[in-house]
Automatic annotation (TrEMBL):
PANTHER family, A to Z: LOW QUALITY PROTEIN: ALDEHYDE OXIDASE GLOX-LIKE, SECRETED PROTEIN-RELATED
Top-level lineage group: Eukaryota
Residues annotated as domain Glyoxal oxidase N-terminal: 1-312
Name of this chain's protein: Copper radical oxidase
Length: 489
């Protein structure tokens, strides 16, 4: 293992850890409520899918907390149990999804509780669905709901069948959700606009989710099989992104209106991540055993990185004053000041404002580990001079809702976010996090005459602003290797 101590002077460097992990190819990592990491699954030497001769169906911790512990669900879900889909839940338990099986893991006691099987499709690698935990808000009582979209309907025995011609097998459009602290059963959601495997789901500061990258046919992986597309196990790349709105009515959550396609296929070994300025960096794609840019190859090693710009990118951004650099679990309120320009000249826009925390997580192999979106509770005071003050609660008093460590804070006014500012969640140290009393929020108020309305009063806000749908692409010629510090590629 290697460690990096971030610094602002450009002198930071990698150092070898004194601790080692078990041998793992394609494991999953998740940050726990004390800031440590759980490392789950993988195999010992690699391959398209796993097998009993190299399986490592265990989990361990960093910093170490004893030796590896065998997991029942990982042991029973060959061959598609690499990069198991994993989330720390507000209950403190961990959701584990591998092949068709689902379980709750209490890592304190090592007990695993089976939940319903995944419907419609395999979501883990190499079927590689898009996954995300939907926004955590006071309105949903900080309850975690996980969204799974795409993947492939492939039964365990078929993965290694000689008759399985992978790039001719269509991906799935299915989307389902699971709220594991409430129910062990899946719920059908709006399907994707088109089938996708190897799709990234990326949170935007507005609370909408960008679906980008992937293919309509096949799966992740590569090989020298006669039926491969060059070496690619996927074909028919999906070039047009889609947007999921978790607050839209059923049947209206997905849209591709106004979204422009890329010209760069992004399949195996691709990545995407939100940047603090609200754009999305998209990189990678190399369904080859090594570097290959031969002119006759359909899907070469890809060196171009794209930046995807939402419509709000060119808007005048809010420039909130009063953001704090560290958030505690509970604790006193803090005030954020918004001037007339931040409110677009109308103080009534304070009623359509959100304060959000996004942990961007780690991106590799068309998946995003550790990504999370949380909306802080707040009320407001609006003034006749078209300025306003947001009175903001700190984090809920439960580190399992948002684990300690670095994240970004955004203030979103009428669907236009500020540039994200890095904030430390919790103490900034490993260990049990201090829990403080939750502060009372004052009622929201508007000075008489402000915004042309009488005084308004109410509780903490949980409103959602929908942005417009004009988007464009920009392409530069550089290579990004995202997430490589965590897993092998």
């Amino acid at each position: 293992m290697r460690l990096l101590n971030p610094s602002d002077d450009g002198k930071c460097d990698w150092v070898l850890s004194p601790d080692e992990s078990d041998q793992r190819w394609y494991p999953t990592l998740e940050t726990l409520e004390d800031g440590s990491m759980i490392i789950l699954g993988g195999c010992r030497w690699g391959g398209y899918v796993n097998d009993a001769n190299q399986d490592n169906p265990t989990y361990e911790f960093f910093p170490p907390k004893g030796g590896p512990v065998t997991s029942t669900i990982l042991s029973n879900t060959l061959p598609a149990n690499l990069f198991p889909l994993t989330w720390l839940l507000p209950s403190g338990k961990i959701l584990l999804q591998s092949n068709w099986a689902t379980a709750l893991l209490d890592y304190h006691t090592t007990e695993e509780t089976p939940l319903d099987n995944m419907p419609d499709a395999v979501r883990v690698y190499p079927a590689s669905a898009g996954t995300a935990m939907l926004p955590l808000t006071a309105a949903n009582n900080w309850t975690a709901t996980i969204l799974f979209c795409g993947g492939s309907n492939i039964q365990p025995k078929r993965w290694k069948s000689p008759s399985f011609i992978v790039p001719t097998y269509g991906a799935s459009t299915s989307c389902v959700t699971l709220t594991p602290d409430v129910s062990g059963s899946y719920t059908q959601d709006d399907p994707l606009p088109e089938p996708r495997t190897m799709v990234n789901l990326i949170f935007l500061p507005t609370g909408k989710i960008l679906a980008v990258n992937g293919a309509r046919m096949g799966t992740a992986g590569y090989g020298n099989d006669s039926w491969a597309i060059g070496q690619s196990y996927a074909d028919d790349p999906v070039l047009t992104p889609a947007i999921y709105d978790p607050n839209a009515p059923s049947g209206q959550r997905w849209s591709q209106d106004g979204l422009q396609p890329s010209t760069v296929p992004r399949m195996y070994h691709s990545s995407a991540t939100l940047l603090p300025d609200g754009s999305v960096m998209i990189s990678g794609s190399n369904p080859n055993s090594d570097y290959n840019v031969e002119p006759n190859i359909k899907y070469p090693t890809e060196y171009r990185t794209e930046l995807w710009y939402p419509s709000y990118y060119s808007e005048r951004r809010p420039q909130p004053q009063g953001l704090i650099s560290q958030l505690s679990y509970g604790g006193p309120l803090f005030d954020i000041q918004l001037d007339s320009d931040d409110l677009f000249g109308n103080v009534s826009n304070v009623e359509n404002t959100r304060v959000v925390i996004i942990r961007m997580g780690f991106s590799t192999h068309a998946m995003n580990m550790g990504q999370r979106y949380l909306e802080l509770e707040h009320s407001y005071s609006g003034y006749a001079n078209n300025t306003a003050t947001l009175h903001v609660r700190q984090l809920p008093p439960n580190p399992a809702i948002l684990a300690p460590g670095p994240a970004f804070i955004f203030v979103v006014v009428n669907g236009v976010p500020s540039v994200g500012v890095q904030v430390m969640i919790g103490s900034g140290k490993l260990g049990k996090q201090p829990i403080l009393s939750v502060a009372d929020l004052p009622s929201s108020s508007m000075e008489q005459g402000a915004g042309g309305s009488e005084a308004l009063r109410g509780g903490a806000l949980g409103t959602y602003a929908r942005g417009s749908s004009a988007w464009h692409w920009a392409v530069c010629t550089c290579m990004a290797l995202l997430g490589g510090m965590i897993v092998g590629w």
